[in-house]
UniProtKB/TrEMBL annotation:
One of its GO terms (molecular function) is ATP binding. The keyword Ribosomal protein does not apply. It comes from Secundilactobacillus hailunensis. Belongs to the ABC transporter superfamily. InterPro entries: AAA+_ATPase (IPR003593), ABC_ATPase_HisP-typ (IPR030679), ABC_transporter-like_ATP-bd (IPR003439), ABC_transporter-like_CS (IPR017871), MetN_ABC_transporter-like (IPR050086), P-loop_NTPase (IPR027417). This is Amino acid ABC transporter ATP-binding protein. CDD domains: ABC_HisP_GlnQ (cd03262).
Amino acid sequence: MSMIEFHNVQKYYGDFHALHDINLTIDAGETVVLIGPSGSGKSTLIRTVNGLERIQEGQLIVNGQDLANRKTDMNRIRKNVGMVFQHFNLYANKTILENIMLAPRLVLKRPEEENKKIAMDMLDRVGLADQAPKMPAQLSGGQQQRIAIARSLAMRPKALLFDEPTSALDPEMIDDVLNVMKDIARDSSMTMLVVTHEMGFAREVANRVVFMADGHILEDDTKEKFFDGQPSNERARQFLSKIITH
Ligand SMILES: Nc1ncnc2c1ncn2[C@@H]1O[C@H](COP(=O)(O)OP(=O)(O)OP(=O)(O)O)[C@@H](O)[C@H]1O
């Protein structure tokens, strides 16, 4: 069953054509890594999936709902599709536990006791159950990003979008966040679309690697073909050799 389907999608910012004729299908449970040079449209593409950016032409079906249709309820989409950003934006004046319980309480009206239990389970899943009573500023950047992931998981989404989740972190914290993401990716019930330059993550857990440049998808391969064979697109080959040697 497909979770995300782009059919001939076009996206413009004013006159600027940011996404050109995007066709991409992601099945439920798949992990897809999206790569490409700066400005190629990766953030734009990922942000269309939960309606943070609207598309102008084509069809975008997420969890069975058509996002091109203005009548589609975006709140329903966002309940099922979580997003983790580069900057985690936790509420500074609330404890870690409160940060995680807030959205399920307000959006899902989840009963308090159950909400707390799920929040603690998710904290445990990201290895930070002992941090529950602390304030965000008492945690490192890597820990805060793991809290942001737990916060998304607490909504029990069907899909998670990650937009460069480790690129604002100090190097020694990156692996802790990637390990949490790998654990989620191995859970076959979760669909993941991840913008990252961390090719170790892609090699280990991605089902597919998608390469974008100038708003076009130029390559969409299984990870085996992408890493062990050769991407057929010349720009994808060049990009790959650059990010792997650096
Ligand atoms: N709100 C906006 N208004 C106008 N142009 C935009 C807007 N957001 C992005 N763009 C342009 O769209 C293009 C794609 O940007 P996008 O951020 O999606 O690329 P990206 O591949 O994620 O880049 P990076 O790796 O640097 O984050 C860029 O040329 C960018 O300048």
